[in-house]
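[SOLVED] Need 3D model of a two-part complex

Original post:
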Amino acid sequence: MVWIAIRMLTGDATKFYGLLFGIAFSTLLITQQLTIFVNLIERGASGVYNVPSADVWVMDPVSRTTDVNLPMPSTALDRVRSVAGVEWAVPHLRAAASVRTKEGDLEGVSVIGVDDATLIGLPRRMASGAADVLERPDAVVIDDVGTTRFFPEGYDPVGERLELNDQRAVIMGVADAIPSFTSQVTLYTRYSRALNFVPGTRNRLSFVLVGAAPGVDAKALATRITQDTGLRARTRDEFARDGVDFIIENTGIPLNFGITVLLGFVVGVAIVGLTFSLFIRDNIKQFGALKAIGVNNAKIRRMVAAQAAMVGLIGYGLGVLGTVGFIWGFSSNPTFKGFYIPWQVPLISLVAVALILALTGWIALRRVLKTEPAAVFR
Amino acid sequence: MSAAADTATAIAAISTRGVARDFTAGQQTIRVLHGIDLDVRAGELTYLVGESGSGKTTLISIMCGILWPTEGEVRLFGTDIYRLSDSDLVDFRLRNVGFIFQQYNLIPAIDAASNAAVPLIAQGMDRLEARERAIELLAALNIAAQADKLPNQLSGGQQQRVAIARALVHQPRLIVCDEPTAALDARSGRRVMDLLREVALADDRSVIIVTHDNRIFDLADRILVLEDGRITHDGRDMPKDH
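Solution:
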């Protein structure tokens, strides 16, 4: 009977494709929007992800994220270094600055000062040049997405001079970095030079990056640093989570994406529900005849379930493929750099599709089950 | 129940005793069948005749086990069908009753052979085996060449033969036909009735035809006339006043 159910479904091409479209469109909308949402809010943690070598981030107790921080006195560095279990600790500066472009426009940038000696704080990979270019005078490294903001596509910015807060800076390399949430241009330079580029107040040290000694648990070390210094210390994962939470709590992004995802679900229910109902209505005589002949309700349920499962699987597959195509198609676009589909997102879409089909299938099935076999004689 | 009635029940294909059926319309309850006592024998082509609203569709639905009577008892080949559980009744129908609907109600998306094979597939037979059996029957009905065609590729007469094949393929003991000649001209109607007599009727099988087509009354073995929910005539021929 399942074979008959599938043939009944595919035999009505208009409704079959309508159902597929409904499920595929719904899946695409839910999967694509959730994917963008997850990747976008994860950029709240890009500053942390770009420095994978730091086990613990130490900051002023009021600092919340890499971008929302209160500088500390430089003595904080020595206090942290004195804590047992700290393998190394380096200064890290993050501040805002202005760049005057060749066209005379003013562009806001982030300046990140990395440790002079070890260059800890610089993204791990360079898109152009080597990390040690920062040893050259006035050298800065620009993030790869930032080059698209300052220069035409495909242009090699190495050697370009910038007017950074009225001081000369020369781009000597391009870092392969995860873009920030705001996609603001980021310039990396040595900590000592960053102090010059960025006009400051008495306290300039944004963070102390810490490496845990072998065998020392990062969480335990963070707790110990807080106890010993009074500073806020967060493990890498905790601080990344703080960045994500900050965006969730302080922007309308979750609500906006949530509404879109909900719309995807509602559109799915509407299209699939309507098409399924039309399909059942058009075949109600056949279902009635089957019931009269002796096809019991359990078999009818299996038939409708098979129809729903077939539409669901194909439609879901098309929707997920569409999302993969979207991410792949835009992978070279700086806005979508590094975007990926977390495995949880297709799972959520699958649950949503299952709910859509369960709901619409149940409504359609009710009509079939309610149909009196005797109705075929009327 | 009398001894004579008992004997009749023992040999009858269908036996109804005191069958009544009410329908509710708003606040009103309308009785459309009034205590029908009837025995239908196997090997007979029985017509159930009556005007629209006389209750013939209700009676046939009750007799073949798809509509519960408000009162009374229905036995099909000795089984009191409305004492069966719902699932047993559905299964009983699947194995013992074949239907030929007025609109045929063939499934548009599957071919003629698969349509004819539906009862066997529903019984759990392998689809290809069921299809083979159905094709044999389609051959007997002279439409084996159309076995692979979809219903919309068949003429009305061919669709009706597929419907007949579907009613017979699982060798049921009761065949129920609803207005089989309603949409046909006189010649085609008589041909269908001849076909039904030829392929459907058997010593151990009963065929009941609901009709009000007076062009085929002479082909019946027995005619039951229903008026206002009561059987008013039971005989070989139609009463003169009809």
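Edit: The mean pLDDT of chain A is 89.
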